[in-house]
Design goal:
374 residues; alpha+beta; seven-stranded mixed β-sheet; binds 2-oxoglutaric acid; binds fe (ii) ion; metal ion binding
């Protein structure tokens, strides 16, 4: 029988703060409850979590006021496009012809500001880059946040779990005894959920960092799509029609889902209106800026018209294997994507109870803006 719900996030919070010490067997209250003991001590089949300080907590007491506008500084604009500060000693291999690179031989946490500027531009160009053999998970969480804070104001996620004391870190976590995948496929045929992160915000994220803490031996890869290439694949006549259109992005359903699963909603859900085609401030590239998870309605279109056009755009991105990449996680991997010009999807394809645990640092960027069709 499952242990009762006891001392929920506080037990993990105490443990995570001290790094050692007493804890009781507890489920952590949240939308993705897990058994703390199984994470800290391991189970018969699974070792303990490698990074217990990163176990998710959901502080149901804590709420945040609406986000306020801020002036985003796009460091990618200052980058030297020769990338010598970033890539001088690196080995770079493209993942595909149209999106993605894998890099060895760079330590992100040690980059100079010039190197960080180049990182922002390099990622905007490649869309997603997997940096191997990184120490981001091993340095103190505050140092990882200080590094990420260079790229923009940290986003605090309204519903996801966070390491105790660090609400700016968004966590993805399936514990050692998690059965979500098995349960999920009782009802669904696949787990693909294309989206760009929190596009319901007025200033959605730009350069975004996701780093692995624990991962299954096989499975749990992450998919990425190049939304700039998705735009370019459309005919000029179709592109022209999209320019000037705006769409509503909504946080309401995500907040509702969190509440229904016993989770938290730390900030009142918002909606935002963004252009359907946005221009990247550093590269000048135009990209589709709609996603199935958060984009609800095209402004000025009737419902059926909006549904029809959005469905086409969502399917176009989902089916574009020739502008997608699939990133495999390995210990030490940090994946950096530009959330303004990409979509991504986790895959829930393993169901044997292996742990999957990742942390995201999510700097916000400028309000999406459009430049005219040419
Ligand atoms: O779990 C993953 O691979 C990605 C999850 C996700 O969508 C995110 O962290 O933004
Ligand atoms: Fe995401």
């Amino acid at each position: 029988m499952a242990p009762a719900l006891v001392e929920t996030p506080q037990a993990a919070a105490t443990y995570a703060k001290n790094g050692t010490g007493e804890y009781k067997e507890a489920y952590i209250g949240g939308p993705k409850a897990y058994r703390l003991d199984a994470e800290l001590k391991g189970t018969e089949k699974q070792p303990p979590a490698k990074y217990p300080k990163y176990l998710p907590t959901w502080d149901s007491e804590k709420t945040y006021p609406p986000l306020q506008p801020f002036e985003h500084y796009e460091h990618g604009k200052d980058a030297d496009p020769k990338f010598l500060n970033l890539l001088q000693n690196a080995q770079v291999v493209d993942l595909t012809a149209n999106i993605g690179a894998e890099v060895h031989g760079v330590q992100l946490s040690k980059l100079t500001d010039k190197g960080k500027d180049e990182l922002a531009l390099f990622v905007a160009q490649k869309k997603v880059v997997a940096f191997r053999e990184q120490d981001l998970a091993d340095i103190p969480i505050q140092e990882a946040l200080d590094f990420g804070g260079y790229f923009g104001r940290h986003h605090i996620h309204p519903t996801s779990g966070a390491p105790a004391g660090y609400p700016e870190v968004h966590l993805v976590h399936r514990g050692a005894e998690d059965t979500t995948a098995r349960d999920f496929f009782e009802e669904r045929t696949n787990s693909v959920t294309w989206h760009s992160d929190v596009t319901y915000e007025k200033q959605p994220p730009g350069t975004t960092f996701l780093y692995v803490l624990d991962a299954p031996i096989a499975g749990g890869d992450t998919l990425f799509a190049n939304q700039a290439e998705a735009y370019r694949r459309l005919s000029p006549e179709f592109q022209k029609r999209l320019h000037g259109l705006k769409a509503i992005h909504s946080a309401i359903e995500q907040a509702g889902n969190s509440k229904n699963r016993g989770g938290v909603v730390r900030r009142e859900p918002v909606t935002s209106i963004h252009p359907i085609v946005r221009t990247h401030p550093a590269t000048g590239e135009k990209a589709l800026f709609v996603n199935r998870q958060f984009t609800r309605r095209i402004v000025g279109f009737k419902k059926e018209e909006s549904d029809y056009l959005l469905k086409f755009l969502f399917d176009h991105v989902a089916k574009g294997q020739d502008f997608q990449a699939r990133v495999k996680w390995a210990p030490g991997t940090v994946v950096v994507w530009d959330n303004r010009v990409t979509a991504h999807s986790a895959l829930l394809d393993w169901d044997d109870g292996q742990r999957r645990h990742l942390a995201r640092i999510t700097p916000q960027a400028e309000p999406p803006a459009e430049t005219p069709f040419q």
